[in-house]
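Me: Here is a favour to ask of a fellow structure person. Could you put it straight underneath, so I can go through it closely?

Assistant:
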Amino acid sequence: MKKVISLLFSILLFPYALFSQERKPDRKLEKALAAMVADFKGTAGVYVLHVRSGRFAAVNADTIFPTASIVKVPLLAGVFDKIEKGELQWHQPLVYRDSAKYGGSGLMQFFKDSSETELSVLVALMMAYSDNTTSLWNQALAGGGARVNELLAQYGLKDTRVNSRTPGREGNRAVFGWGQTTPREMSTLLLKIRQGEVISKGASEKMYRLMTKGYYDEQAVSEVPPYVQVAAKTGSVNESRSELALVNAPHGDYVFYVGTKNIKDQRWEADNEAVQLIRKISAYLWAYYEPKSGWKPTWDVLKK
């Protein structure tokens, strides 16, 4: 009877065990990643964790990098915190004004003044198209950068912060731009979302769904089979190209972040050195964790 009870207890705890393995360094993988970034003309950092096994690899994983648009993941959490508290509603009506327009990526900057919209549209555009106008609007709706930073601190993130339009962080903004993070911390935040630990289980599930519907899929995502779900967010400015991704692979989820800064190649081309590094690392990780999949990319944006 004791053996039966023990077996049942183990079965009940099995899903939890998938995410609670003791983390141990994967030196083989770490060595391979270190070799990939060794000749990079700039500063690069990588963190990757295979969730089921608890094995991780870290190269400059605690170095602070600019987030660029990856800051939109913390902003997403900030908005859902307000929704959870009843201070915002998912389908809350809003009106777009030209005064909110901000250039760069995104679609809402092209809306007509006084266009009717709603919060769900702002959030979807922010995550799918990395919309800058809606992102700054969402930051304000979330209570501002200071409130989002308080939330990040609650989840144990000490270096991941919103800098832009955040009182007291002007110096950080001058160095890192809109936001800052480390490969280890941003990977941790996405993993917490995957595990249902950010805001609430329901909020985490909705945030995760949003992160699987990105338009920008020609970097890390392009090196994973199209039939495998990936939650991802890219971030790009002249001096930095980075990507965050969590792959729902057949043999277990793995999460990774490739951060770069001070890059020499600042061209906005598909063969930019930092972008190529992100693709190379993503392709290597897929082959490393799924060696028998037999899948190789069949469409190369560099040839188009």
Summary: Confidence is low (pLDDT under 50) at residues 3-20. The domain at 66-172 is CATH 3.40.710.10 (Beta-lactamase). The CA atoms of residues 223 and 284 lie 9 Å apart.
